[in-house]
Amino acid sequence: MVDKEDEEDIAEKVDEIINEQINNSSPSRPEERIDVILEELEEYWKESPDLRLGQIIGGIGQQNGFGKDPFYMEDDVVLRELEDRNSD
Q1: More confident call, 31 vs 40
Q2: CB 79 within 8 A of CB 33
Q3: Which domain holds residue 56?
Q4: How many domains does the chain have?
Q5: Is residue 6 one of the residues assigned to a domain?
Q6: How crowded is residue 51: how many other Cβ atoms within 10 Å of its Cβ?
Q7: Is residue 7 one of the residues assigned to a domain?
């Protein structure tokens, strides 16, 4: 069982990891990817309008080994999965 102090320690470590990722000097991602992903998402979502956005993204994450937390999933994974789903 995790006590309140352990929860706070875990939360601090998670925050540190997230901040490290945000501040990482990795190369910029191309801005064009946004429109492409949104177009694929729109097509898929309109075919399945009863799904919530979180269900779509979470499902893609689970299918690609990210479990229920797609935080570290790269955009190319999302795009590829949406393209595959739209081609069915």
Answers
A1: 40
A2: yes
A3: 41-88
A4: 1
A5: no
A6: 14
A7: no
Q: What is the DSSP string of 51-83?
A: S-HHHHHHHHHHHTT-TT-GGG--HHHHHHHHH
Residues 6+ apart with CB under 8 A from 45: 51, 53, 56
Look at residue 52 and tell me if it is in a domain: yes
Token pair recorded at residue 10: 């875990």
Closest CA to 63 of 84, 75, 81: 81
20 pLDDT above the threshold of 80: no
Residue 69 lies in a domain: yes
* CA atoms in the 13 A half-sphere facing the CB of 26: 8
Mean model confidence pLDDT for the chain:
87
Give the pair of three-digit tokens for residue 61.
């994450």
Side-chain half-sphere exposure of 55, counting CA atoms within 13 A: 7
The region, left, alpha or beta by phi > 0 then psi within -120 to 50, assigned to residue 21 is alpha
> Is 63:81 a contact under the CB 8 Å cutoff?
yes
